[in-house]
Specification:
GO molecular function, one term: protein-macromolecule adaptor activity
Distance between the termini: 86 Å
Protein name: Outer membrane protein assembly factor BamE
Largest sheet: 5 strands, antiparallel
CATH topology of one domain: Beta-lactamase Inhibitory Protein, Chain:B, domain 1
CATH architecture of one domain: 2-Layer Sandwich
Number of strands: 5
InterPro entries: BamE (IPR026592), BamE-like (IPR037873), BamE_dom (IPR007450)
Keywords: Cell outer membrane, Membrane, Signal
Order of helices and strands: HEHHEEEEH
CATH class of one domain: Alpha Beta
Radius of gyration: 30 Å
Strand content: 25-35%
Pfam families: BamE
Number of helices: 4
Structural class: alpha+beta
Length: 153
Amino acid sequence: MNVLTRPSPFALALVAALALGACTPTVDLRGNLPTPENLAEIKPGKTTRDEVQQLLGTPSTTSTFGDESWQYISARTETKAFFKPEVKDRKVVSITFDRSGVVKDVIERGLEDGVAINSVERETPTAGKELSILEQLVGNIGKFSKDSKGNSP
């Protein structure tokens, strides 16, 4: 009895749905992006540091040197299957304060304003002799032995 059966339309639809579902990217939203309404309430020369924190919350990062500035950073990335995540959108809001703690400037930047930084591939040389694995193992024999009282020779 050799009977060939055709797959049911339900089975084909299920396989197609699973195949399409595997191609759907995973979207990750990260960071703290203030709403446009809250940003509109910040007036340079009038709004204080405390008012900014009440409106926008804690900043993602603050400046270390120079004028005090707060950055609110957010990013949206998409990951398809096992591939490297791709940044689709990035927004940075920088708020600079003067010495008295009043907003001096509000700047919004996007992904297109970013600059790629290439890392340096150099290595710092170290003083000393390059030992092989065998030299390291043989050179340590006897260095760490202790007598029965726990004293080194």
